[in-house]
Fold this protein.
Amino acid sequence: MNDLDRRLIQVVPSPRQLALQQLEFYAFIHFGMNTFTDREWGDGTENPSIFNPAKLDARQWVDAIRQAGMKGLILTCKHHDGFCLWPSQHTRHSIASSPYRDGQGDIVAEVAQACREGGIRFGIYLSPWDRNQPLYGTGKPYDDYFIAQLTELLTGYGNIFSVWFDGACGEGPNGKKQCYDWERYYHTIRTLQPEACIHVCGPDVRWCGNEAGETRESEWSVVPRRTADTEKIASLSQQADDASFRQRAISAQDRDLGSRRLLANEPDLIWYPAEVNTSIRPGWFWHSSENDQVKPLEKLIDIYEKSVGGNATFLLNLPPATDGLLHTNDVKRLKEFGEYLESSYGCNLIDCASLQASAAIEGHDIEAVRTDDESCYIPLVQNAQITLTWNQPQTIRRLVLKEQLRFSQRVERFAVDAWQNGQWQQVYENTVIGHKRIAVLPRLTTTALRIRITDSRCAPAIRFIGVYADK
Ligand code: FUL
């Protein structure tokens, strides 16, 4: 084992990062003042009197989310316009000043409760950029305000799995400059909700770098620590002007964040997995003009297979309409998506295959990969091969591989062969496995598949193998 590989495999996920990666697929809900003004960014001058989602039913959101196979929901409790979906004690720019439930409503509470009842994890989005709050741009007084709001959300609504910090700030060069005290924000979250992951402008989950649903082919989880500065730079205009700060950052758009070649010169490495966020429609908020622009099923499948199946998590945004409900077109698409997941991944053909590992480490049984259980895995020697054989020919379309992340990510490259016309033929090749790789194979019928780990950071540990027919 060389020194670099030894160093790389020491970087492992925290329990909260592992738990998030296992959720795989969860929803964003963008709902607020913009829903009523038909805009994407409000300027903070909106009158709360226009906010009145007459039929709001958070259970409808949660049902649609569950049907799609998602396991969590992150709500925009406050977007850039500063309007709060809960009756914050620290501003009048909130639901308490709106006609919704005669000013007695609390949408954060309604959603948190619907999530609890539906078995869906609940998370919060709280925009650091606040265009309504007069304290914004004053430094510590705004940080105090932000911490006070964060504290309300982290103490009043049960268990929180995610705090999503957006880096967006459109103040421009002549606008207000607020230098956020990130470390203080993180400390508050760690103290009040230690299991919550802090996303994007935070240390636990990184933004994939686009909002179109694209995932890198190699989405590494072990990356340089300076990658975590990227989003903060976008939001901190003062620091963005500072060349040395900028130099330390790696752009979220860079193609390579974690190859051995890049990491070899990096002194400080972190576990920082990618999240792919996109909206089911063109906008993040609901616009009646976009009711017929719900992403096609095929597009959602493609994004899912590349994100969840490419070692990232998938955060899909669903924007409720002015009546407070998800539109029927969105609900229908989510149901179709859930049915697709069920029919495509419901039956693992490994159940009727026999397994053989060319080089498992002694004392371990290859049979462990049949169980999709966090604790099971098979440690292999380097360049190992796993062969799956069936008595009857199988029509196979997808192969799922998972690594045991407790030992970091180790697979650098792997290939898949199918037994075709009396010989092995390579049908797939890729780099990262990590939490999950979904390999979409060319349509094939075969009696055997062979997985070859062709390069790895030390001996790889494979946690799960799934083989699925074409649907
Ligand atoms: C961006 C925001 O400006 C958008 O409005 C949206 O919330 C998206 C998820 O993040 O930075």
Remarks:
- Residues 349 and 467 are 5 Å apart (CA to CA).
- The chain has a mean pLDDT of 94.
- The longest strand covers residues 437-456.
